[in-house]
Amino acid sequence: MTVNWERISLKELAALVSTALRDDGIDAILVGGACVSLYTNNRYQSFDLDFVTHSPVKEVTPPMRKIGFRRESTRHFTRKDCPFFIEFVAPPAAIGDAPVTDRHVMRTKYGNILMLTASDSVKDRLAAYFHWKDPQSLEQAVLIAKSRKVDMKEIRRFSRNEGFTEKYGNFEKRVLRKRPS
Q1: In a shared domain, residues 43 and 123
Q2: Closest CA to 53 of 17, 96, 97
Q3: Domain that holds residue 97
Q4: Which of 39, 60, 152, 155 is the most exposed place for a label (fewest CB within 10 A)?
Q5: Cα–Cα distance for residue pair 116/105, rounded to 1 Å
Q6: Tens-digit pLDDT profile for residues 124-169
Q7: CA separation for the pair 135, 110 (Å, rounded)
């Protein structure tokens, strides 16, 4: 397969990395801003792909090399002709203190991407908004919730358990707000 690395989409790259890791027996899940990009059809554009795996970085290096990426630091991989970089985030895959148990499989022509569900991606972004007071994360959570079907009841329960019922209310109002005609 010929890949135009300079014009590769985030979705194509996520699939290529996922496939390379899986081919080497490494289970990895895509998390973070890249999930936001995929769930919102790039209404938010991430330039890094965060994967969580239980394999040490020394084990992910060979499959990353096979697709032309080199290790830049303990957990970062780049390719000179690619606009995105790859980061391996410390395990476990969790949102707040809760481990991620559900996963979504996005199928592409380059392979399957194992990633957070849309609801978990919203919770992940809300956790950043709640704990780090990051308004961009709130925007991302709203974008996902307006773009995909999400479990608002579960997101409300999560927010309450995190102690942020009021901030959840801000999110819910934004999601339910109608667009001006």
Answers
A1: no
A2: 17
A3: 10-116
A4: 152
A5: 9
A6: 999 999 999 999 999 999 999 999 999 999 999 999 999 999 999 9
A7: 34
